[in-house]
Fold FAD-dependent oxidoreductase.
Amino acid sequence: MKKKTSVFISGGGIGGLTIGLKLAKCGVDVTVVEKLPGPTPVYKGELLQPKSLDILDKLNLLNPTLENGHTIKELDLVEMTSRLKEIDTSVMKYDVIPSDYAYSLMIHHEKIKEIVRDEALKYPHFHYIPNSICKGFRENYAIVKKDKKEEIHVEADFFIGAEGRTSATRNEMGINVKESIYNHHFLTVTFPRPKDFTRGKIISTHDRFLGLFPLPNNEVRSVYLIPAGKYKELRKQSLDYVYKLYTDLVPELEGYVNKIDSWKKIQLMIPLAYHSSQYVQGNKAIIGDAAHTVHPMAGEGMNMAIQDGDVLGELLCDMYGQDKLHEDNLNWFPKVRKNRVKHQMQLSHLSALAYSYPYRPITWLRRKTLSRIEEDPVLHFKQMLNISGLGIWKESAVDRLSQTGIWPLRTKINQQKKEAKLFANSDDYPWKQEGLV
Ligand SMILES: Cc1cc2nc3c(=O)[nH]c(=O)nc-3n(C[C@H](O)[C@H](O)[C@H](O)COP(=O)(O)OP(=O)(O)OC[C@H]3O[C@@H](n4cnc5c(N)ncnc54)[C@H](O)[C@@H]3O)c2cc1C
């Protein structure tokens, strides 16, 4: 069977759906093929950072997102001794950013996908084909296997690879990615939480790490760091052993974490990182995890996919709107996104290093750095801005010295200076000023 569309998207994850909705909204015919037949119980990213909330607002989806999510304005970073006595708590506040979106939001991954997909399906020129795999490409069409039997050839002007880590489009573009692996893995599981456990919380000792991120409906998503390769051995332990790992660090979880009734609910998450050298080739582009995968420590993976979808979607909308379909225009996409992605990957990598080596000097440095970030308004703003995706302000030598206490604390930061660091429309979509070919 043959089919024609303007933009073909391989992969209906959060990245593919975001760009699909953007294109549908501006009247472009778009086809999304998705391998899975329906929702999956596999955990994926659930933390929406401020820039993604801004994008969802522009897509008129902020209200349903807020209704189905749990807002997090502050994160408590708790440091404990090996004897499990609390020694320090630093609080990271999103409201140091001068923005309407000075908060993050926890939402089930399948829920946010459903919200975006349902909105897109309102447009007759948005075509969503589940249970279908993009097998590869010929000259101007994609080969899709639908329902494991029927083969469809989808002809299109542009082909977007949004298939996540195993990307048929990236393979077609002949791009190899070099994966960095880490010395640790995570157990990840969602379970009920006490009603008043509403703040994001990271608890660490010199050799333990637990991240807790409240979800709506009194649930909490947890990530517990384990040494790489330890999972098989751990799975032989009773669930009581797991409960204790959690309640040792957060006693108030007693009676809640115990609701995990099977090891099957606890998933192993193996962090890795790679960054493709190229995002665009001819009339093909890759977005989200197909182009870059990031360590999950800073909660950026899903956000980077949404932010890619926004920029490439806006670009394609303008190309169709101005009837300027030359494929060279696609190069605006890496021009905007590549450095931002690189910076967020570095942030995530550094956070991972800070929490994953069980050496006391590293623990000391982490504690010192976190309390300085809390106290120094320049460091605090930079940290939250860089995580938020709303702007970039790189660390300077003075910042590094301030983090270790060698440089005195700065006491204030000018509001105008903060505002100048936020991305403007012309940073997000520079071709609007500079023109398309
Ligand atoms: C197990 C796991 C846990 C994670 N946990 C976190 C976390 O805690 N925090 C965080 O920030 N990030 C996390 N991430 C990362 C985050 O979920 C991803 O960065 C984000 O989902 C990327 O979105 P995407 O749309 O690019 O790719 P994906 O979400 O992977 O979506 C790709 C879609 O393409 C489909 N697909 C694949 N191949 C084909 C094909 N050939 N044809 C058609 N469809 C295809 C897939 O079924 C999938 O639906 C996790 C990722 C994984 C895999």
The CA atoms of residues 26 and 317 lie 6 Å apart.
